[in-house]
DNA sequence: TATGAATGAGAATTCATTCAT
DNA sequence: GATGAATGAATTCTCATTCAT
């Protein structure tokens, strides 16, 4: 996990990167500051110059995800994909969205795993994630839906919250399947699989009136 | 978390129950055998009569989920809901399915949280889950789809894997939303929300040809 | 420092004895639990079965001084000396008192040094010492003075508090001199020196009307 | 604690003052060089330009007490009070002495607490204190006693050492009582209390022949 | 001269595991 | 079988000291 060039001392960045790697592999409690220090190439004491406690390292990762990765990477690219003028129909937008989100999840996967795990156990982290990322993404999607409804491409009866929950639910199901089950068995070609997901998101599982 | 009556010494059951409670609250590494022993009402040394190491307690929980909870609770009730003769249309099956799965997830939530966390970090656990539960559930769903296709209620072009991934993706999105985001903000009435999810699963987010 | 036989696990007693020795030699902060463990002949972890934190060891020593040593050793023997029927005059009581207190201070010197040092820095310890020992000793001395005044051996105008402060002040000055300055230079014979102290306590430093 | 203007770099003085404050509050071992540096307003590394090790700071404080405070403050004012021509009788000298010493002890209390604590634990410090201050003070007192004996105001049989030990013992008892026990309970008016101490020092606790 | 980042040895504390009772 | 005292390795964290700037 390499972090973008930040206004941050060299060593602090090294420590944060090492921490993301180690914690993502073993989980927070099972990771030791000594291992993080070793991987970061600093003395163990140095960690505590930058992070008062071990817990603060975790907080640092979360802050990083929210402030540094959250805004530009998660939300900006979300907007960019949704409102890209090149898309002519809903299908192409959704497909581009799924593709782009999938790649993003792969890219920030170590950080993601840490934050998901911690969010499972700590309400305060869920709150921060909701306020800083989820609620904002929902707002963006709402605008997108209005545009689509205006163009007659989405059903105006459908709750935007439910719709985006569905898109994300399908995305996560797809991601988990490809990432976790894929290595265990033979799976379908990625792009074909993705097309199926788009189909389902757009038209559901029921028989289609044609 | 109370376990069903098993062919298992009283004390071992007590320890397993206590372990599920403690580990679900703090995570595996952050839980101590002393706390598990205290909650189980046994001496610390007693734990190690039934589980060679702390890690074996975790394995015990997983085995329990797979063997004891997996077959009767997860798969049998899945079958029961899907093939219940009382359902006249797909909508009622899917809604019953979501409702039943939601309640099940709530019921076994402590165990679920442990297993999800561990599955995030260990491939061997993912493999066991896939072989013992997921692949079986997919098989069941395949049969169900064939029945539905025969009745003209589901589209035969749709991959059953993709369809069940979609159902589960929507279910998980719904569950996470109700469980984790619900307490943070005002959310819609449960049953109404559920109906929306069923709609989306059945017909997707696109504009509907009428 | 060997503690009397107490209702206390063998190991706890060993730890407390070792702690008194080590802490008395280096002071609390400069003493390490590892050294205490080594001297006590137990594993370092064992210390923390009996004392939750290092600070609790100090508290244990203080409690020991107050409860175990305080009542029987400090106060009872104080009473015994003061009200011993064998003494015919004030001089013999005071001399016996000084002798007995001096020996007691020597005996419990390691513990004393710890408690004095800590009392210098912590008001809560001073409070406990005052309530559990000093105020009680003052009460005992008050009774003694009444008896002496009744016998015409002490001046009724003299405040018992000031009188006992004087006795203790002289005693401490004597103790410090013998213990700390004695080893540095040639000092007077102990008994002769003690007689001088008694003289001063009884009649002061001014010219005596004869 | 502000030190008099010394032939000493500004920074060294600042460090020494800060050290006295910090060490007096927490004790030597519990004080950290980083806190001393912060309070002194210098970088942590700067401390080690002036004091090779942390221990040397303590030595610096002691040296300061002995060389700088010892001669002018402790001994000169002692002489001044004892041989002040204005005193007509022993009572007024002793009272003035006690008052002056009490104030001095209050003034240099932070330094005093440090030195007393260290003297309790280290013979070499006791030796320095004895040679540089105590023995000199005893010499001064001896001269004073000769004068008093000549004037018929003090008993020539009384050992000057014992007498000054008694005066200091009473003074310390008085100081400890006012400083440490005073805040815990209601105590007598200071001046009245002081008069009682003078009485006891001069005439002792025995019944007075009138 | 002054700085403060970096160090690493050592501190207190926790905890899974063992074993005598 | 059951206990829980004892262990000691490992953990987080502190801090005096060094040294490049």
Brief write-up:
The structure is a homotetramer of 210-residue chains. The first copy, chain A, is built from nine helices and no strands.
Topology readout:
The structure is a homotetramer.
Chain A (H helix, E strand, L loop, with lengths): L9 H17 L6 H8 L3 H7 L3 H29 L7 H18 L1 H13 L1 H28 L9 H22 L8 H14 L7
Chain A binds a DNA duplex (21 and 21 nucleotides) through helix 3.
Write structural notes for this entry.
The structure is a homotetramer of 210-residue chains. Chain A is built from 9 helices and no strands. Chain A is elongated and about 65 Å long. The termini of chain A are far apart. In chain A, helix 4 (54-82) runs antiparallel to helix 5, helix 4 packs parallel to helix 7 (123-150) and helix 5 crosses helix 9 (190-203). By secondary structure, chain A is mostly helical. Chain A folds into 2 domains: 1-52, Homeodomain-like (Arc Repressor Mutant, subunit A), CATH 1.10.10; 58-203, Tetracycline Repressor, domain 2 (Orthogonal Bundle). Chains in contact: A-B, C-D. Chains A and B meet through helix 6, helix 7, helix 8 and helix 9 of A and helix 6, helix 7, helix 8 and helix 9 of B. The structure holds a DNA duplex (21 and 21 nucleotides).
The named CATH superfamily of the largest domain in chain A: Tetracycline Repressor, domain 2
Reported by name, the CATH topology of the largest domain in chain A is: Tetracycline Repressor, domain 2
Task: Estimate the mean pLDDT confidence of chain A.
Answer: 91
Biggest β-sheet strands, sense, barrel of chain A: none
* CATH architecture descriptor name of the largest domain in chain A: Orthogonal Bundle
Please tell me what the overall shape of chain A is: elongated
Pattern of helices and strands of chain A: HHHHHHHHH
Estimate percent helicity of chain A.
over 70%
The tally of strands of chain A reads 0
Distance between the termini of chain A: 48 Å
**Which segments of chain A are poorly predicted (pLDDT under 50) over 5 or more consecutive residues?**
none
Alpha plus pi helix count of chain A: 9
Q: For the record, what CATH class of the largest domain in chain A applies? A: Mainly Alpha
- What is the CA-atom radius of gyration of chain A, in angstroms? 20 Å
Supply the number of structural domains of chain A: 2
Query: Main interface pair?
Result: A-B, 57 and 57 residues
């Amino acid at each position: 996990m390499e972090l973008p060039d930040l206004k941050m001392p060299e060593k602090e960045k090294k420590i944060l990167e090492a921490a993301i790697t180690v914690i993502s592999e073993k989980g927070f409690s099972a990771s030791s500051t000594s291992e993080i220090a070793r991987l970061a190439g600093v003395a163990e004491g140095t960690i505590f110059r930058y992070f008062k406690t071990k817990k603060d390292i975790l907080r640092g990762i979360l802050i990083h995800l929210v402030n540094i990765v959250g805004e530009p990477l998660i939300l900006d690219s979300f907007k960019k994909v949704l409102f890209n003028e090149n898309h002519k129909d809903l299908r192409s937008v959704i497909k581009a969205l799924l593709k782009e989100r999938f790649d993003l999840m792969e890219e920030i996967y170590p950080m993601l795993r840490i934050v998901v795990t911690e969010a499972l156990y700590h309400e305060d982290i869920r709150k921060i994630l909701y306020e800083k990322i989820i609620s904002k993404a929902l707002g963006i999607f709402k605008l997108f839906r209005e545009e689509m409804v205006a163009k007659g491409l989405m059903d105006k009866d459908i709750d935007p919250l439910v719709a985006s929950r569905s898109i994300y639910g399908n995305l996560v199901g797809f991601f988990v399947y490809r990432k976790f089950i894929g290595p265990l068995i033979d799976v379908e070609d990625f792009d074909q699989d993705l097309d199926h997901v788009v189909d389902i998101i757009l038209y559901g599982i029921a028989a289609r009136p044609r």
